Amino acid sequence: MSTTPVVRAEHLRKSYGSTLAVQDVSLTVERGEIFGVLGRNGAGKTTTVEMIAGLRRPDGGTVRVLGLDPATQAAAVHDKVGLQLQESALPDRLRVQEALELYASFYAAPADPVDLLDLLGLTVKRDTAFKDLSGGQKQRLSVALALVGRPEVAILDELTTGLDPHARRETWAVVEAVRDAGVTILLVTHLMEEAERLCDRIALISGGLVAATGTPEQIVDLAQGEHVLRVRPERPVPDEVLLGALTGVPDVREAVVEDRALVVRGGGALVQGVLVALARHDVATRDVRLERASLEDAFVSLTGADGADAQPVTTSAEV
Ligand SMILES: Nc1ncnc2c1ncn2[C@@H]1O[C@H](COP(=O)(O)OP(=O)(O)OP(=O)(O)O)[C@@H](O)[C@H]1O
Fold first, then answer.
1. For residue 244, what pLDDT is reported?
2. pLDDT of residue 154
3. Ligand 1 atom closest to Cα of residue 50
4. What residues does ligand 1 touch, defined as CB less than 6 Å away?
5. DSSP state of 95
């Protein structure tokens, strides 16, 4: 039995003057999942979620949130969507619980601030002024504020940017707790580790287009270089002999020598091909390790060149 998706966006398009921020984005978010919108800075992620939240009107395409049109049914969408946007700021002296109570007063049937403080690990900070919170605590408060209207879906934009690794991990745990409490989550991030750790499915956005959609594993598999094989020769072998042995071996896409180990990227029957080729060149091996390529490898492979804003890709792969 299929249920209505929480979010269905089809062929969204949005320009700012001559900047085509979102060229063609389609995505579907199902109930109960953490869905990641992943891409580099400037890829069009925030513009996409702002159209989903009804903060911006698309130039083209359609959005439905729980069957509602955010452009024409803004009030109804507002009741069902909790928004945590980049860099939310509150008055310095406002205390944590006061902020929650203030936001709760905007809703007819808000969540209990005490429960939210507990869920987000802020109970001990409830009397602390906003300016005295750490970066991670401010972010958790911003999530609490996004949840105060008891939304069915929460949009969290660059939630952990600027946090140290410890605070980041704590925030991830909070996001999972929120999902476990029954809220569907649309998570905007440029951090691949975050997407891999948290998301059930991801839309990888590049140049205003969807480069790939799927689970983190599916996206990794889609990318070239599905596997990374690391082989250490038993005795020292010159680099050129190691690399030369791989000439013509099918499925090898890239090979380098790192710290005396041969590191080979490729797909298909990579292990067999490499080990047979080395044996033919009398290279005995020990310590053979096959690793799956990371989402980071896939990200680079699917969104083009490394570095700043990626070039638009012209194909979209739905997996
Ligand atoms: N209000 C605006 N006016 C003009 N151009 C804008 C505006 N907002 C975004 N842009 C441009 O649109 C493009 C997409 O921006 P958007 O913020 O959607 O990307 P993003 O993927 O969320 O990036 P980031 O991670 O840096 O927030 C960028 O080139 C950006 O400079």
1. 93
2. 94
3. 18
4. 16, 19, 21, 39, 41-47, 190
5. B
Residue 238 maps to which CATH number?
A: 3.30.70.100
CA–CA distance, 240 with 261 (Å, rounded to integer): 12
Q: Give residue 86 CA to ligand 1 midpoint distance, Å.
A: 12
Q: Which distant-in-sequence residues (6+ apart) come within 8 Å of 1 by Cβ? A: none
Alpha carbon distance 301, 17 (integer Å): 30
Instruction: Using the structure block, give the residue that is written with the tokens 């698309």.
Output: 58
Entry pTM: 0.75
Residues 233 and 180 in one domain: no
Write out the residue range of the structural domain in which residue 49 sits. 7-221
Q: Helix or strand or coil: residue 298?
A: helix
DSSP H or E run through 66: none
Q: CATH number, domain at 202? A: 3.40.50.300
Q: What is the pLDDT of residue 307?
A: 40
pLDDT digits (tens, 9 = 90+) for 35-92: 999 998 889 999 999 999 999 999 999 999 999 999 899 889 988 999 887 666 788 9
CA 214 – CA 11 distance, rounded (Å) = 17
Which positions of the chain have pLDDT values less than 50? 306-319
Task: State in Å: Cα 48 to ligand 1 middle.
Answer: 10
- C-beta of residue 205 within 8 angstroms of C-beta of residue 38: yes
* Predicted pLDDT of residue 318: 38
Q: How far apart are CA 114 and CA 34, in angstroms?
A: 25
Same domain? For 136 and 192 the reply is yes
Mutate to test the pocket of ligand 1, among 19, 24, 190 (most ligand atoms within 8 A of CB): 19
